[in-house]
């Protein structure tokens, strides 16, 4: 990043393309250092280690049915008419310490998941027996607490089974030494289930980034308060905090900071302790009260910027909305900072196109971008776009029909239209007009 | 829901289809009562009120550019060669209290978002002026704090503008009395931004449901601890807590409860105070130690169930995995309870098919189901499925290719395979075999 201390008045000659600015951001932002987290705290995070299975699953041969553990020779040829009659020597329940040994002519009542007891070769489902009641086939066992006598007496078996029938073999799911999950896996519910199943209580992942969001502007009032003349409600700090959370971050909303360079600088400095990324809105353009630019360009002078490798560069982008943008790093830890424009639609579009990928890059996620699709433009008239700029229009995408319809106009203040959009329509730099029916690229939001 | 107190041994004749069970759940679960929440606490929730715009946006005519507020007659015919020279009478910054009145031959320096001062008719962008420096066109203003003299002196304007140029009219985004958002809207970042912009600090939504997740089984050990003989790690309470959060719930993981009916009953009773929905795993089948069934069938007897309208019914479903299921309500508030089978894959599939829709129904979300797609079965051999059952196999869906490939087998204990799946392949009840290349339905996970 080059110095920007002298750019306020004369500006920079270079107008950055969307891709150049994004490449600069993604080339600078490094994934966060991994930490060991409790399993459920790691949800949504990226695993940074190959996880090996320490103990085979299941860890022992066990029953896949509620039934009777038997020796197969004892029930060869059994039928409902000529049942095999076995002596029930006890119960084998899951998690029960001792197991009876099943001898010739014997059976142990066994529950799903319980270890196959010594001597037994297979399991007969309870539905293929009389359940020890001496009558016809049953559909289940009576609760042990209500009928403890079920663990003794005789049982009539109505069907033969082969050796290993209804037995889940030790290691049939995963074997000790197998790789359970590869580094780079994003941990969703089934992956967390697998890690728990193999006994992992904690896991090494990249944490969620802490994103500090602040809006700037002396005109901003907290929603719910009274507006005085010339004031508006702060919406950016709310929208972007929500967007940061949706991107996977832990987001802190600082709220609105007045247009005073010293106040802004000290607020940012205060917040750095809990920030992996700072996002500001407003104050980045060519006005005389653009304090973000003022505070961050002059706070570290050009020389400081070179010395410690940090500094924020303010740029003009060939983009609509979102022309003025700032990016760089700040503070002793070189915390990345993105300074977005203050118009609500500009800041939201800028967040989607630049900040969201940065948040996801910090998490180490493999895919940092929103999904895109191609759609047919459903519009009454052609869309016009300034030549040489990449334009992002708000649209309603209909996946079934494969169409997208613009909502609201190109104005960067149309926050109402934005709230009814589910996509951004991308009009490339070399396109000045898009006819109805044309094929366009859309960025799918949410 | 009918009584189930006498079903443990004899079972019920009726085998429920997946659809019947799901219909019963969705027919019983009512959306939670709305509460007023702070905006950012309402993220992801469903709005239950039509929100009307109390004050037009923007609330006053304001500048869309950094530049000069002028009267158009004063700059008619201006060019770089023959600039119009105006007296600068001061600054109009956003959020500044007093505004200068712009008279004939005068201009006020104005910042983006600042109110158009009285007397002015349009805004000339600073780039179309000499910025008061008496030289050529400039690309921006110097910061007011560094150069306060910029708010006085003369400015040369190089281009004329029409009346209202670069002015955003009061009410051009939304007008007071318009409906900003309709009841039923799900609040994402742009909707939260709009609500803030119109001054709403709080909003009435259905809250996220609090879901208590507990697994049952005396064989279960907390991951990270040592396994003794016959024990396995508790994975269900982790996987389902994560899945509940992913569905939108606030989830509490109680962990594993031993197979003792009294302990289970009192644990559930304790948890009811923080539960909008209770999910248990294990203990729902036909074994002699299936304590969930035992505790919840006998705890309220059949008569109690009828009296207070609560009670859990245990069923057999025509489903694989996931045959044994319990559903009903419990406690003084008739809190819904879903009792899932204990096998990790069975419980996860059951969660996806039954619990997730229940969570989303509690939130009042319009679409409670996972998206589905059609895909070509990519397999080396035909898939077989038990006749009369709806089977859910784990699969890797490739959206680009439009194919799905089974991962792992049909076994309900194959938690490793589940962790590598991104879809469930649905084999309908009337299908006993699916050939490679056949068109199948897939449920898209995550």
UniProtKB/TrEMBL annotation, chains A, B:
CDD domains registered for this protein in UniProt: MoeA
NCBIfam families recorded: Glp_gephyrin, molyb_syn
Source organism: Streptomyces longisporoflavus
Residue intervals of the MoaB/Mog domain: 212-361
SUPFAM superfamilies attached to this UniProt entry: MoeA C-terminal domain-like (SSF63867), MoeA N-terminal region -like (SSF63882), Molybdenum cofactor biosynthesis proteins (SSF53218)
Enzyme class name: transferase
Name of the featured protein: Molybdopterin molybdenumtransferase
Keywords noted in UniProt: Magnesium, Metal-binding, Molybdenum, Molybdenum cofactor biosynthesis, Transferase
Gene this chain is encoded by: glp
Entry similarity comment: Belongs to the MoeA family.
InterPro entries given in the database record: MoaB/Mog-like_dom_sf (IPR036425), MoaB/Mog_dom (IPR001453), MoeA-like (IPR038987), MoeA_C_domain_IV (IPR005111), MoeA_C_domain_IV_sf (IPR036688), MoeA_linker/N (IPR005110), MoeA_linker/N_sf (IPR036135)
